[in-house]
Amino acid sequence: MCKKGIVPTRCAMAEVFYLDGEAIPFRAGQNVLEAVLAHRQESSIPYFCFHPAMGSLGACRQCGVMVYPHDGKHPPRLTMACLLPASRDLQLGRAEAKVQHEHQLISELLMRNHPHDCPICDEGGQCHLQNMTVASGHAYREYEPEKRRYQSQELGPLIRQEMNRCITCYRCVRFYQDLAGGEDFGVFGSRDRVFFGRLEDGPLESPLAGNLAEVCPTGVFTDKVYHQDYLRPWDLEESAGICPHCSIGCNTRPGAARGRLRRVRQRSHGEINPHFLCDRGRYGFRYVAAEDRPRQAQAGGRRQDVDSVLDRLAARLAEGRSAFLGSPREDLDSNLALFALARVLDAPFAAFFEPWEEAKAREILALPHPPAPARISAYAEILVIGAVDRVAPTLPLFLRAAHDRGAAISLLRCLPSPLTALAGEDRLLPPADLLDAAWDWLGQRHHRPFLLLIDSESVGPELLHLLRREIGTWPDGSGILPVYRQGNLPGASFYAVDGHASRLRTALAGHDYDHLLALGQDPQEMDGPWWRSHGDIDLSLIDHRRSLSWDDAWLTLPCAALSERPGLYYNGEGRLQAAAVAYTPAREERHWRSELGPFPLAAGGALREELLPSPVELCRALAERLGLSERWQERLRFHRDFLLRSEPRPGDPGVFLPAELRARFRLHSAPPPRATDQGWSVCRFSHYSEEELANGARELHSLAPASAAWIAPGQQEARQVRLRAADGTSRTLPLRELPDMAAKVLAIPRAELVFLGLRPGDGVDPEWLD
Amino acid sequence: MSSPTSTAESVPTTLLSRLQQVVEHAGSHPEAAVCDLLRILQAEHGWIDDERLQLVARLCGISPVRVEELCTFYPLVLREDPGRHVLRICDSIACHLAGAPGLLRMAVAQSGVPLGQSNGHYSVLPHVCLGLCERAPAAFVDGKNTVAPLSAEALRQLLQGWERES
To answer: Which Gene3D superfamilies does the protein's record reference (chain B) (predicted)?
Structure first.
């Protein structure tokens, strides 16, 4: 039997067996079905319950093949290919009439209760059951009794259930419980009344629930978000994308048609996301369709055309009193284009507005090559620091696989975590104590290579620095993998982590600079008190989301969203990956009267492109207006060539940031540790759906809890808490109890932390209110 | 129902401590006590309501979904109020041949509600093999007594007796 696993096993390719006379190569440990699938991509053997990540079950009885024993004693026998270990010179038959008849009978059995609703089923065109039924040759059946009927459940805004289509393959529950560790979904009943669902209606709680739509071989679980903007899968244009919503850099397959991005599915990358995608990656793309997405350039709050705003901006830049701010969530070329513009103007540039964040980025860049996410499951000892499951929701898949292989997992955390079920050692701590606890763990004897998995949003740069300095003393193969929500942090900050943020602030706080041009980063969303206390700085924003300062900014230039332009992204392991353009935004309209609203292309409408300029194009236009076009291009080429020794194309596995380029970041001294006291401190509360761009995805964001301050039960009877910022402003938040979180810690959302100028681990003096 | 529900008022303290003893007996695998807990609670209450389901989940350290999976798999665990009495008539092959379908039809007619539903006082349920094939058709009364073979007359009298009680 195939052993289930998240990471494909790598064994030496060796011998072959024969299927209908064709030689099929296999690796030791593979079963026949696995080997055939690996050889041909699409199997000539129909199957249902087998899944490469979940292994074989032999439940559906669909993948039968005839085995011809070599001994001359036993007659040929029908055996399930998914349960038959591949072995040398095995002789198998699939094409003969008896086997085909068996496949037809099983298809008929599975289709007995399946409704004939393919024309209205979202799965139609990509349905495994449809494909297998056609492949097996089954077409007509006789069945007199009524079909089995179920009352389907309402499973929230992301997944739609139509239980009548179920063929009881158990893939969904095997994925949800065994791989994703979900506890709110199960299988109920017995015999032919088996039901897959929740105890009652309600949104699925797992951040990996969206995978049900891909795991289900038919239309029981379908993508509800795709349904809103549905076109048949064969009408979609799919491309090779990279998920921009966290540092893992999962490979995606965006599907678009007629000017709209309609869905995102996973695209397998053996080292990053072999099989699955989290819901932030799957549904976060909907920020491109956010109702408040800016599409109109503005000057002083008034709508203007792009050219006149660019003219005003260029004139302001020519004064030489402007500073520049890049963004770790924007792609590499956009950041380099802005950086090059700053360099030719000899102006300050930073990738982070917060020096604390910049120091962390420097430590992340200084790390020796971190392991690939899918390699986590190969470690025997793993220390998890912080809420990695909230920052990068696919990681628990790999941790669970490591646990199943016998890894010892230790957990240091402030907030409740689904990883507690896997952890042998589990400590609840305030953020300020995480470093000491990590040090204690390292003090234990570790003979085998180990991995530190760090939620870098919960910790400060000093923790990363001190741990990094110790790597040389650890067993060979040990490493640190930091996770964070920015999709291109190493790429954006490569040229700008040497005190750039502090210099930018100093420049803006003095009298020499009075204007900041920011790309994809709103300083008010990074440090509220600082920005409020420097209200005389004019802000120009280039972005594709409506940030906090958008409506009050001096100039605003909306730009194309990430999926509307090509992009290069460095993920958390320093792997550069390329994303293709997923779609060109356009609007379907009546070609004779465009103001009358949408009119489908298929019904004779016209398609009007609505593509906004990319940040690179905007920078180029500014350089032209400044008469610096050649110097800008030269500077851009220089920085690009230095960083990109080889450039991957969309669909490539990626290239790594060379080790020698990382080495220079190791020269820095330790960031100063923060003073800690025994009072109340803050940590960041976040929902798995939360990320700057994904917050604009309406359906996904509807699952996030309302803003509040969360504390451990029994700590306070007050109903509200008031926290004060250094500049005297305050915020009052409703108080909510959260079981299984650290004592004397207030967990508050990032927006509130930023408003108050607080960082995770900072001490606070809360005022409790009734 | 997926959120914890207080059971403090509905489960007596003595019963709760008995349940805890059963869990302690299971040692490092508290989830192994789940069937025993369900059996005890059903004997006490007649059926497993949502509060008792949550209680079992909490005591065994497993999710309520896991407990519900078990409850819905085993026909002897009742998740709806069956009334004061439960009659299970075996409908497996030996009893089927010996006249179980007729007995079930008769019970439906006399109780006035479909199989598996309560008429407020009692429920009649079809049941998988009771293991009394040599005395088919067999029945199981109130989870305690077996009646085999069950004649039409015995069935009529049994149900009439229950109706008189009500």
So the answer is: Glutaredoxin (3.40.30.10), NADH-quinone oxidoreductase subunit E (1.10.10.1590)
